[in-house]
Amino acid sequence: MERLDIRRIDTKSSLITALRLMDYNRVKSLFVFNEDFFVGLLTIGDIQRAIIRGVQLSTSISEIIDKKKIYAHHDESEEQIKSEMARLRAECMPVIDDDGKLVKIYYWEDFFDSNIKEQRTKINLPVVIMAGGKGTRLKPITNVIPKPLVPVGDKTILEVIMDQFEGIGCNKFYMSVNYKADMMKFYLSQLEHKYDIQFFMEDRPLGTIGSVSLLKGKISTPFFVSNCDSINDQDYRDVYDYHIQNKNELTIVTMVKSFRIPYGVIETGEDGIMTALREKPELNYQVNTGVYILNPECIDEIPQGEFFHITHLMEKIKARGGRVGCYPVSEGAWHDMGEWSEYLKMINVL
């Protein structure tokens, strides 16, 4: 029970507070208490599903806590608890007595090697990597090497991104290249690990999704699109499940970003009359992380050879009544290297 303190949260706390606590301690579940009484387990999945339903991040945990969650009973053997944790792929398992009191906690590492989580069913979807940009915000290093080859630890960010997709079963990559394309091809050809990559060339900049028009007729299933300057600590199979269940045509992986204004904010109406006063309000947004799932039909909506951003495609789908969904991840789960300050943060975290 000594690890409980960093995961403990009060039932009156807000969802954004819970997200911050998870990010700070790098965990994906918290133990919710009403004073000293154990109320239940809150997971990152619970919060993500609440956000998708439109629940505000200022909402208290008590409003979304799942009272039907499965917990272990103190009469169960460790073998039974281990089996149930494996079935649920649970990060931790509370053990309660007949009165609902929390008496013990088992964690994944108490029973399993971390690799066992890979037993989850894998998916094999194509992945399009947008690797043609010049990375001007990371100069001068990108004067020498292209942004996808910038190192993150002992790998390039390109390898980290592709390894994450390979880890969930995605093995076929299409890579849009332009700037220093020969250097990228040479580097990848020298690696001991060989990726299945089909390169396609942007002869001139075509925006954040325009070059995907060159793949018409080559992709017949839903597929991922990823930029080359950020990493998400998110199992993309969850995003795919949401995409299919919600019948989306395009799904954006978004990051929950919170801003606190350090002043009292006054709202006014006609004649400058004050209508509301909010002291140091917190504003919450969902930010585009640069990772998407697209249905193959979306490729036909990208004009051939024209400059076209992913935002243009989103607007085009929405204008005809199509479904564009958003799958949220926490701020701490997203690591960006678009600028030097963000890159330095990334390499210190990963």
Task: Explain this structure.
With 350 residues, the chain is an alpha/beta fold. 26% of the residues lie in helices and 29% in strands. It has a seven-stranded mixed sheet with strand order 11-10-7-12-17-14-18, with helices on both faces. A three-stranded mixed sheet has the order 1-2-3. The chain is globular, with a radius of gyration of 23 Å.
Summary, kept brief:
This protein is an alpha/beta fold and 350 residues long. The chain has helices at 15-25, 44-52, 78-88, 108-111, 141-144, 157-167, 181-190, 236-245, 310-319, 340-349; strands at residues 8-10, 29-34, 37-43, 72-73, 92-96, 102-107, 127-130, 151-152, 155-156, 172-177, 196-201, 223-226, 230-232, 250-260, 264-268, 274-279, 282-294, 324-329, 334-336.
Keywords:
350 residues; alpha/beta; 10 helices; 19 strands; 26% helix; globular
The radius of gyration computed from the alpha-carbon positions, rounded to a whole number of angstroms, is 23 Å
Largest sheet: 7 strands, mixed
Give the helix proportion (percent range). 25-40%
Q: Secondary-structure element order, as H and E?
A: EHEEHEHEEHEHEEHEHEEEHEEEEHEEH
Secondary structure category: alpha/beta
Low-confidence stretches at least 5 residues in length (pLDDT < 50)? none
The N- to C-terminal Cα distance equals 28 Å
Q: Count helical runs.
A: 10
Q: If strands are numbered along the chain, what order do they take across the biggest sheet?
A: 11-10-7-12-17-14-18
- Strand portion: 25-35%
Q: Please state the average pLDDT score.
A: 91
Shape: globular
Question: How many β-strand stretches?
Answer: 19
